[in-house]
């Protein structure tokens, strides 16, 4: 073992001009080796690290875009549903408006017809009342005329008739009544 160690030590004492060998001085070779290893790692590993980072970033961006597209589609669907509901509500509002106008027109017609019927009934009632009052007035006038005529006739009869004429009139009337009684038997 001593020979192997001596051979490495002897390698360390070789002159560096024109020959290749190992440098066993750790303090001198370590920064050089580290910079070579880091250079190689950066040169060959940067593609792997950067590619991984870029791939991860690309995946996140694509995922965000997909999510945004899904959200956009959902928003568009909600907008379409809202528009559809709005159209339905507008149609219903138009129907209610038209039905309301129709209902108002029907009520107006019904009110006009009811008012016309009421006016016609009142006119008929007025005419009947006038006719009744005319008939009553005519009857009152007839009664007064009849009473006045009767009083005038009685006055004339009383002034013209004496008792003998009175008895004769009574007998003549009794005779007429008797003849009418025989005819009916």
Supply the key terms.
single chain, 185 residues, mainly alpha, 3 helices, rod-shaped, membrane, hydrogen ion transport, plastid
Summarize it.
Helix content is about 90%, strand content about 0%. Residues about 5-15 have low confidence and may be disordered.
Mean pLDDT: 81
User: Helix and strand string, N-terminal first?
Assistant: HHH
- Helix count equals 3
Shape: rod-shaped
> Biggest β-sheet: count, sense, barrel?
none
What structural category arises from helix and sheet content?
Answer: mainly alpha
Characterization of the model:
The protein has helices spanning 2-12, 26-160, 163-184. It has a domain at 35-151. It is 91% helix and 0% strand. The chain is built from three helices and no strands. By secondary structure, the chain is an all-alpha fold. Mean pLDDT is 81; it is low at 3-15.
What is this structure's SSE topology?
Layout (H helix, E strand, L loop, with lengths): L1 H11 L13 H135 L2 H22 L1
């Amino acid at each position: 073992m001593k020979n192997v160690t001596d051979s490495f030590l002897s390698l360390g004492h070789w002159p560096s001009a024109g020959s290749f060998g190992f440098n066993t001085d750790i303090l001198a070779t370590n920064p050089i080796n580290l910079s070579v290893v880091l250079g190689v790692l950066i040169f060959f590993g940067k593609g792997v690290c950067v590619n991984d980072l870029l791939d991860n970033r690309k995946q996140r961006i694509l995922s965000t875009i997909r999510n945004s597209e899904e959200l956009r589609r959902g928003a568009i669907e909600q907008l379409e549903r809202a528009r559809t509901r709005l159209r339905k509500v507008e149609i219903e509002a138009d129907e209610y408006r038209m039905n309301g106008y129709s209902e108002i027109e029907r009520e107006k017609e019904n009110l006009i017809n009811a008012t016309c019927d009421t006016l016609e009934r009142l006119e008929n009632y007025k005419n009947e009342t006038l006719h009744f009052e005319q008939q009553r007035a005519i009857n009152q006038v007839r009664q007064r005329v009849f009473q006045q005529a009767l009083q005038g006739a009685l006055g004339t009869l009383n002034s013209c008739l004496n008792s003998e004429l009175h008895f004769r009139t009574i007998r003549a009337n009794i005779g007429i009544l008797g003849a009418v009684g025989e005819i009916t038997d």
